[in-house]
Specification:
This protein has 303 residues and is an alpha/beta fold. Helices cover 43% and strands 25% of the residues. It contains nine helices and twelve strands.
Length: 303
């Protein structure tokens, strides 16, 4: 097998016209260069150079190998440039997993900020629930996942979690409901109401149930819906009341009213997760910074 480093030595000799000149340019001794070229000729199984006066010139085999050495040298230079661009965050790709209600108010503005700072880095976005996104992140199928997570369950598993925001739940009531006249509701005000559920089992539902447990009651779910928009429709029809996170309100149904709740305030905590083993990447850090900026901006404007 031909040694690439020896091929580059051959290229230097052919370019300079002599072993001594190539050795001087490379900082080697002429004998060291000659020894490496002898090994290369053995690897090639054919003479590569012939003497001419005080110098050397390539044989047909030497010219052929020199052309390949030049091409390899160009490819190596291109690879070094590409690696430098990747290390500096000028190029690359980041695979991101996020959940639906984080898309419009968090992910979209964050990616817009990121692209202004890292225009050459591609961001591949795909919807995913925490039960799918976190395993995919651990296995290297994604670089970052935006998830709702219990703050008490962040340790271990080879992941690092960066807090983005606390998404508060608000009460959604049918217009004309007896509690609609109050600007702020105690969570216990809802204890005896029929409830419209909008969460699947998981950290979001756990946040709601945990707050209700702290208030001393268990919600009576009379309807289960698949998403927040559907839940608002059931509430508007008078089938019950619901709790919806602020990020999940989206297009508010015209026949519902929204009121803040307290004592306690149900909150789902949103994090950006990355692998602890992920190499230092300016682009990944830049995306985390953009997510934090977007989360802070959304909090300031009341989302």
């Amino acid at each position: 097998m031909l040694d690439v480093r020896r091929m580059q030595l051959l290229r230097a000799v052919v370019t300079s016209g002599s072993v001594s000149a190539a050795a001087r340019d490379l900082g080697y001794t002429p004998s060291a260069v000659s020894q490496q070229l002898t090994v290369l000729e053995k690897e090639a199984g054919i003479a590569l150079l012939e003497r001419t006066g005080r110098g050397v010139r390539p044989t047909d085999a030497g010219r052929l190998l020199n052309e390949y050495a030049a091409a390899i040298g160009e490819q190596v230079a291109e690879a070094e440039t590409a690696l430098a661009d990747l290390r500096a965050g000028r190029t690359g790709r980041l695979a991101v997993r996020y959940f639906a209600t984080a898309g419009a108010s968090l992910v979209a503005p964050a990616v817009a900020l990121f692209r202004r700072a890292f225009p050459g880095v591609r961001v591949d976005l795909r919807l995913g629930e925490p039960e799918d996104s976190l395993p995919e992140l651990k296995q290297g199928g994604a670089d970052l996942a935006i998830v709702v997570q219990d703050p008490g369950r962040l340790a271990g598993d080879g992941l690092r979690f960066a807090h983005l925001l606390d998404d508060r739940y608000v009460a959604v009531l049918p217009r004309g409901h007896r509690l609609a006249a109050k600007r702020v509701l105690d969570l216990t005000d809802l204890a005896d109401e029929p409830w419209v559920g909008s969460e699947w089992p998981g950290p979001c539902l756990d946040s709601v149930l945990g707050a209700c447990d702290s208030a001393g009651f268990r919600p009576d779910f009379v309807v289960q819906s698949e998403d927040y928009a559907t839940a608002q429709g059931f509430v508007a029809a008078g089938l019950g009341i619901g709790l919806v996170p602020e990020m999940g309100l989206g297009s508010r149904h015209p026949a519902v009213v929204v009121r803040r709740v307290r004592n306690p305030v149900p909150v789902r905590v949103i994090y950006a997760a990355v692998r602890e083993s992920s190499p230092a990447q300016p682009a990944l850090h830049g995306l985390l910074d953009a997510l934090r900026q977007a989360a802070t901006a959304g909090t300031r404007t009341g989302r």
